[in-house]
Amino acid sequence: MKKCIIYLVSLAFCLVSCRQAVDDQDTQLKTGDLIFVGIPIDYSLSDSSAIEQAIVDATGDADSVNYIHVAIVEVDADTTFVIDATIKRGVARYPIDSFFVDFRLKDGTFPRFDVMRLKDNSEVSAYVQHAKDYVGRKYDMCFLPDNDEQYCSELVRNAYVTSDNIHLFAEAPMNFKNANGEYPVYWTELFGILGMPIPQDIMGTNPNDMSRDAGLRFVTSLKF
């Protein structure tokens, strides 16, 4: 009886240890993971990028964090890359350390980097290759679906397409207005320069909506 109890205790310890090892491994970045860059709802962006503030104003909600960007992870041997679309780089693949530097806030702190993973990762290599096929294209300042340029969540949507040609992430009418129903100055000035109307209600995507997709699960927040 004593030996049986010792065996059961040892088995339980082994199961807990093994589960802990799996959990620890599961939080490591994997190819196909998505990194959402988040700004707390009460964080002042007055000294930061105007486009970031405009995105928060237009797509933010009452949650504690608003996502202003999303990037794709690729782990290649000992190096981790991101593939994303930004004004600075266009669509690019580059080391993740440079990604963190690019999004460092002007007060020296970092935004939140929340990692999310597909619940079904069976075709993830193909999704990442799709994203790499877009590298070299320009950032889509017009936020339109029918051109060759890409904005961040548009790139993810276009890359994450199954072998049956099904998009994993849905589109919805885009909103550029703030909570008061007005257009932030950034959008009016930008689209004025582009010589086009603000594409209010055009079908598209944004990081906030994408982060809530039922096909994703939260993995970890990267700490600094």
Describe this structure in words.
The protein is an alpha+beta fold and 224 residues long. The chain has a single domain (28-221), classed as endopeptidase domain like (from Nostoc punctiforme) (endopeptidase fold (from Nostoc punctiforme), Alpha-Beta Complex). It contains 7 helices and 8 strands. It has helices at residues 2-26, 50-59, 96-102, 124-133, 152-159, 185-194, 207-211, and strands at 34-40, 65-76, 79-86, 90-95, 112-118, 172-173, 203-204, 216-221. It has a 6-stranded antiparallel sheet. The chain has a two-stranded antiparallel sheet with strand order 6-7. Strand 3 (79-86) and strand 4 form a beta hairpin. The longest helix has 25 residues, at 2-26.
Give the overall shape, derived from the CA principal axes: globular
**Which CATH architecture is right?**
Alpha-Beta Complex
**Element order: H for helix, E for strand:** HEHEEEHEHHEHEHE
The CATH H-level homologous superfamily:
endopeptidase domain like (from Nostoc punctiforme)
Alpha-carbon Rg, integer: 20 Å
> What portion of residues is helical?
25-40%
CATH first level: which class? Alpha Beta
CATH fold descriptor: endopeptidase fold (from Nostoc punctiforme)
Q: How many helices does DSSP assign?
A: 7
Largest sheet: 6 strands, antiparallel
Q: Hey, roughly how much beta strand do the residues contain?
A: 15-25%
How much is the average pLDDT?
A: 84
Tell me the domain tally: 1
Taking the alpha carbons of the first and last residues, their distance comes to 50 Å
Total strands: the figure is 8
Based on helices, strands and strand pairing, what is the structural class?
alpha+beta
Low-confidence stretches: 1-24, 43-48
Biggest sheet: strand arrangement? 4-3-2-1-5-8
